[in-house]
Amino acid sequence: MDDLKKRALDYHQFPVPGKLSVESSKPCTTQDDLSLAYTPGVAEPVREIHADPANAYKYTNKGNLVAVITDGTAVLGLGNMGALASKPVMEGKAVLFKRFAGIDVFDIEINAKTPDEFIETVVNISPTFGGINLEDIAAPHCFYIENELKRRLDIPVFHDDQHGTAVIVAASLLNALELQGKTLPTAKIVFLGAGAAGCSCAKLLKLMGATNVTMVDRTGVLDTDRADLHDNNRELAIAPGGVTTLAEAMLGADVFIGVSAKNALDASLIKGMAKNPVIFALANPDPEVLPSVAHAIRDDILMATGRSDFPNQVNNALCFPYLFRGALDAKARQITDKMKIAAAHALSALAREPVPQEVLEAYSLKELKFGREYIIPKPFDPRLLARVSKAVAGAA
Fold this sequence. Notes:
There is one protein chain. The chain folds into two domains: about 1-25 and about 60-155, Malic enzyme, N-terminal domain (Rossmann fold, 3-Layer(aba) Sandwich), CATH 3.40.50; about 160-395, Rossmann fold, CATH 3.40.50.720. Helix content is about 40%, strand content about 10%. It is built from 16 helices and nine strands. Strands 6-5-7-8-9 form a five-stranded parallel sheet. Strand 8 (about 280), helix 12 and strand 9 (about 300-305) form a beta-alpha-beta unit. Helix 13 (about 320-330) crosses helix 16. The longest helix has 20 residues, at about 160-180. The two termini are about 45 Å apart.
């Protein structure tokens, strides 16, 4: 860990601080270039955009520019670190947008005293961008912020911690269930964690056909008698009078999806799950249960985590660059459920195809094929851009 810390800090500091820079897309080496880039030539596109705002997509980078915006209240696995400390994560997100989908990003870290102050800031800067990617904002404020921005803006607004996770979970689960001889409509699914990611995953799965979903948080099973629920998890609550604890919910469960915390799943509960269970332990960096522990208990488990050093990494990088690429290419005004479902099906289908040699080389593998240790494409698969973006644009 000491070596990782040093390498990570060196990576971010040298040869220049940070991970981003701004480069000109046009030449500016002569007096004539300068007169076109700035005054007097720049007045012409200004007049065109003033006459028709849609011309901003023709004469500026708006159509390929996304804002990655946070208040730093839920920084990946670290909690409320504040706006400034979240900047390395937002820069990292920008790197992935550029590397995987050719999308430019400005990272924006906002000190806001209230959700409404945050919303007003984003609304006021929104003309610059073709899309807004919200990141690392704590629940329940993240729900309110996203809903208000979607209502007020005419460009795509996407909270990746919610919906990016949901798309990848859905894509992975479709394949995992097939390999385990189960189907989404008939599977008994238990969620541990009812925050932003858990709620969004459950809602998307229900839209795609799931009929038996039980949500569990620190207090217990979400049922309609509980007075502590908020709008975004109340609709996922089940009728009271049945199960009340995680242990009860896990009996006969086909699927466990953890979006909670390290070691949050008592491994003994795995014994009571149905035959050929699916376990997605997605807490980062440490899962709800380690694969080695789960597999030692049962040999019929199909498992995924959020980590790259275990098989079946559920990674948002498989979603957000391509979802935005498709949305931007289609000049979509919002990202819809239909677009998210299209992305999930495209990812699911791609995992079933033969893996290109360049992907094997990138991961130092001799072989990789659809099966219990490969249910979702690898992030460096070059086919992702065309397949997922096209599916999203088509849905848009």
